[in-house]
Amino acid sequence: MERGKSNIVLIGFIATGKTSLARELARVLNRRQVDSDELIEAREGRPVRDIFEVYGEKAFRDLEKEIIGEISQLEDSIISTGGGVCLDPENIEALRKNGILILLESDIETLRERIDPTRPIMKSKEKLEEMIASRRDSYQRAADIRVDTSDRSIEDIRDEILTRLNLEGDKNEFNLGR
Ligand code: S3P
Average of pLDDT values for 26-48? Predict the structure, then answer.
């Protein structure tokens, strides 16, 4: 039993389905859902992309860290995170105190289909591959559970997560079955 941990935290690369799945899990489990990028945008009053462009990545990461520190204190919540959150070990440590970290992974073809083609990361296939490779270890080290989200429906992935957390029915405590 993972006593004391009541948040489900979705981590992983851009476009692996974190926000959509968080919404779906929150709906079926009747829990609050929060998304780090949405909170940053609400606080700053501008899109993440603008924050990157106007203030630079460092300022964005500082804001992100502040938000992660705050949402890590929540309970019984489904938290979706921006793709860069788990590159900072302090973010992982904070999220882990109250949460099980679920890494969503998709193959590169699926990512290329899903990522908005105007995003800077989509400039070249090599750049995307490089970024995925450079982040793989950090993601995997942070993960309690890894789930493949390539070419699968939200419902199918949702059910796998619920089964692996032993959260079917109205149970409220995780059991990772380890
Ligand atoms: C980022 C991913 C984005 C967002 C920002 C930086 C990253 O979130 O936080 O653009 O470094 O991977 P999504 O993973 O929700 O797209």
Answer: 97
Rounded to two decimals, the pTM is: 0.94
Contact criterion met (CB below 8 Å) for 136 and 94: no
Residue to mutate (ligand 1; options 14, 20, 38, 50; most atoms within 8 A of CB): 14
Rg (C-alpha) for the chain, rounded Å, is 16
Start-to-end CA span in the chain (Å) = 9
Average pLDDT over residues 82-106: 97
Mutate to test the pocket of ligand 1, among 16, 41, 46, 48 (most ligand atoms within 8 A of CB): 48
135's tokens: 């982040």
pLDDT at residue 4, rounded to an integer: 76
Question: pLDDT over 90 for what percent of the chain?
Answer: 88
Q: Is the CB of 35 under 6 A from ligand 1?
A: no
